[in-house]
Amino acid sequence: MTKRLSIIIVTYKSENDIYDCIKSVWRHCDIIPSELEVIIVDNSPDSEPMFSKLRTLFNNDIVLIHNTHNGGYGQGNNIGINHAKSPVVMIMNPDVRLIEPIFSTVLKEFDNNEKLLMYGMKQMTSTMQASTNSFCCTSRMNGYLASTLNAICTRREWYIPYLMYLQGSCFFIHKEKFQSIDMFNERHFMYGEEDDIHYRMTKKYGFHIKYNHKLRYIHLVGNRKPNIDYQKKRLDASVFLNKSIGYKPEKTIRNYKQTYRLLIAREWLRLKLHKGSSEFLRMAIEFYHYLQNYNK
Questions:
Q1: Is the CB of residue 7 less than 8 Å from the CB of residue 38?
Q2: Using the 8-state DSSP alphabet, how is residue 93 labeled?
Q3: Please, which of 24, 57, 219, 285 could form a disulfide with 98 given CB 3.0 to 4.6 Å?
């Protein structure tokens, strides 16, 4: 049977997530099961304990690949994509849970539109709570404008392909076109890949990207607390990846500063209205000070 969809899941010590993740895939599979290919690329030093349990749970319904070294998130995904037999690939984090059938709808879109590059869906933090991160303005945009557009467009479910990239935890991509731009940048270990992919794909093929807010999935990040180390890693990723496409680091830093000025002002106002988070405000202020000294 010809494969129509390959799901790539890169893991690293992900035993707490991967079993429920794959169960959700098969539970909501709405295409012929033999048309679906699930590929797990494990970057952990010892994959066999997890792989053994996966074989017990799912028999031969999944492809298990032990990476020879931990080359990062992008390198792991590239291994899986090159192994994939389907024309459409779904990139999926192990802490994602599918909560409804989505495959048939998405594959019909790719079948009916040969120009379609990527396809995104609405991210949720629970079955009832929507995330604010289904899509985001590029880090190469003026931070004041980006923050304003993110807030308005998230509330209205307006996705603008020219200005915004899709959330990278769960999205679909045209395999052959992605391979033609050399897929994930393997010089970069982790974070910020979706902005870079959006830039390179659209530069070559145009802005043929679709976002469907009626299709939903859960990304288990609802309980994460403000983390300045995470913000620093994302900043480093943005600076590196933007620099690789000719965008000067000082411009990326400027845009981040603009964004965080607005975030700090907004959270201060929310606290005055007894709605904000003092923990988030402290983190934002600390990170803004970090930004001021980033190039020094």
A1: yes
A2: -
A3: 24
Pairing outcome for strands 118-124 and 209-219 = parallel
Give yes or no for residue 100 having a pLDDT over 70: yes
Exposure string for 40-68, b = 16+ CB within 10 A, e = fewer: bbbbbeebeebbeebeeebeebbbbbebe
d(CA 85, CA 237): 30
Rounded Cα–Cα distance for residues 72 and 190 (Å): 6
Residue pLDDT, tens place only, 1-44: 799 999 999 999 999 999 999 999 999 999 999 999 999 999 99
Q: Which amino acid is at 293?
A: N
Write down how long the chain is: 296
* Residue whose structure tokens are 């295409």: 31
Give the span between the Cα atoms of 190 and 234, in whole angstroms. Answer: 8
Nearest CA among 146, 122, 125, 126 for reference residue 134 = 122
β-strand pairing of 36-42 with 5-11: parallel
**CA angle, corner 153, sides to 151 and 155, nearest 5?**
70
